[in-house]
Design a protein that fits this description.
10 strands, two-stranded antiparallel ribbon, alpha+beta, 5 helices
């Protein structure tokens, strides 16, 4: 039952928000290639957001970080969920969809790999992003018009069945969505 719930959430995102997987070069994710990301806050996922948006991808209390792109538009964001290596970066720059140059709070530069992650790029306003921004920064920011949602797959909620524990991969969900459409 939980798997079906997760499946329909992914399907809804795909059809309403023009969902993209950034495993290769995807046009909606191209903005990430040109600009540095600056971290604006780190927070823990609030229960009220989980309830309000019926979010099954995140767990209440899980860590997330919000980055703002330095593209001159104050409404382009990247949200890194769970225990992503991006969270420790105060700034980061795109190298490939799964590799970033990271600068830590000590000013140390390192290359980080997001191979256990997936990313969705959404090119329209999402109220959940604006709500997370207000809760995390405690100030009103410009409404989002672009957001890249990066999830660490190591920390995705597991689905319990009577026989086994199953964790659906993003590729599996994409195949199911493709088959239905």
């Amino acid at each position: 039952m939980y798997f079906l719930n997760l499946f329909f959430i992914a399907l809804e995102l795909y059809t309403t928000a023009k969902l993209s997987f950034c495993e290769g070069r995807v046009r909606r994710c191209e903005v990430l290639e040109s600009f540095e990301m600056k971290r604006v806050c780190i927070g823990t996922y609030p229960k009220e957001i989980s309830i309000k948006y019926r979010d099954k991808m995140m767990t209440t209390g899980a860590q997330y970080a919000i980055f703002q792109l330095s593209d001159g538009k104050a409404n382009h964001y990247v949200i890194s969920h769970y225990f992503s290596p991006l969270i420790k970066c105060v700034s980061a720059r795109f190298i490939t969809p799964l590799t970033y140059s990271c600068t830590t709070k000590n000013g140390e530069a390192e290359v980080i790999n997001l191979e256990n992650s997936f990313m969705h790029c959404i090119t329209e306003h999402l109220q959940i992003v604006d709500d997370l921004l207000v809760l995390c920064t405690e100030e009103r920011m410009k409404p989002s018009v672009f957001v890249a949602l990066q999830y660490s797959t190591k920390k995705l909620p597991q689905i319990s069945t009577s026989a086994a524990r199953i964790t659906p991969t993003p590729q599996f969900v994409l195949v199911l969505i493709t088959l239905i459409l």
